[in-house]
Amino acid sequence: MTTLRLVVVDDHPVVRDGLRGMLGTQPDFEVVGEAAGGAEALTVVDSVRPDVVLTDLRLPEPSGGTLIRLLLERVPGVRVLVLTTHDTDSDVLPAIEAGAIGYLLKDAPREELFRAVRAAARGETVLSPSVATLLLARVRPRHPLTETQLSAREREVLALVAQGRTNRETAAALFISEATVKTHLLHIYAKLEVPDRASAVSAAHRRGLL
Q1: Can you tell me the distance from the alpha carbon of 52 to that of 80, in angstroms, rounded to the nearest whole number?
Q2: Is 4-136 a CATH 3.40.50.2000 domain?
Q3: Could you tell me which residue ranges the Response regulatory domain spans (predicted)?
Q4: Do 51 and 78 form a contact (C-beta atoms < 8 A)?
Q5: DSSP 75-90
Q6: HSE-up (13 A, CA, CB side) for residue 176
Q7: H or E segment at 155?
């Protein structure tokens, strides 16, 4: 069994302690570091090289999208999973654009959090329902499109996702960035009117796209 190395970043000690205890109940998780702010997070992550960083957004600087970008620059390949109480446009969009692999709210059930950490480690995008709704609203066309109007590239992305490829593997296969893959997936979700990759694959099979 592969052990996932995690770092927890939150400016509230009680939250960090709670997350450490919760994550520690899983045999495949190991919390290898924690930080109370952005600068400390960069130092810790650079030192321990975790698989996944769980971070709040509003922290002592650097924070938000800036912190996410810096983390990804310091440790290429690390997955940044946002865990916060904020789900407004001004919080969600910069975080996703900066490269966060997922965005969960702190009221998520613990089993959802565990699944999200494992999915993030595999390179899969994970979004709270309210966040997915917000992002879909931003990319959904004014006039609903049919499945036949998926672009050629979107069909290629969907086919690779259906094969079980991660975002990174899909990006490598198509010679595009992971961020571009995420954008294509959001457009696919909007066009097929589904919330996630599993639903997109299911809908594509139902409609004869795969």
Answers
A1: 6
A2: no
A3: 5-121
A4: yes
A5: STT-EEEEEES--SHH
A6: 15
A7: helix 152-162
> 172 pLDDT band (50/70/90 cuts)?
very high
CATH 3.40.50.2300 placement within the chain: 4-136
3-state class (DSSP) for residue 35: strand
Report the alpha-carbon angle 90-96-101, nearest 5: 145
Residue 62 binned pLDDT confidence (cut-offs 50, 70, 90) = very high
Distance (Å) of CA 69 to CA 5, 60, 161, 201: 20, 16, 25, 30
Per mean pLDDT, which range of 114-118, 140-144, 155-159, 182-186 is the poorest?
140-144
Q: Taking Cα atoms as reference points, which of 88, 44, 91 lies closest to residue 70? A: 44
Instruction: Report in angstroms the alpha-carbon separations of 147 from 57, 135, 141, 194, 210.
Output: 35, 19, 13, 12, 11
pLDDT digits (tens, 9 = 90+) for 83-101: 999 888 788 888 988 999 9
Please identify which residue in the block is written with the tokens 């520690």. 24
Name the architecture of domain 140-206. Answer: Orthogonal Bundle (1.10)
Lowest mean pLDDT among 89-93, 142-146, 148-152: 142-146
* Dist. CA 92–CA 80, nearest whole Å: 13
Measured distance CA(27)–CA(104) in Å, rounded: 22
How far is it between the farthest Cα atoms of the chain? Answer: 51
For the chain, the first-to-last Cα distance in angstroms comes to 32
What confidence score (pLDDT) does residue 141 get?
A: 52
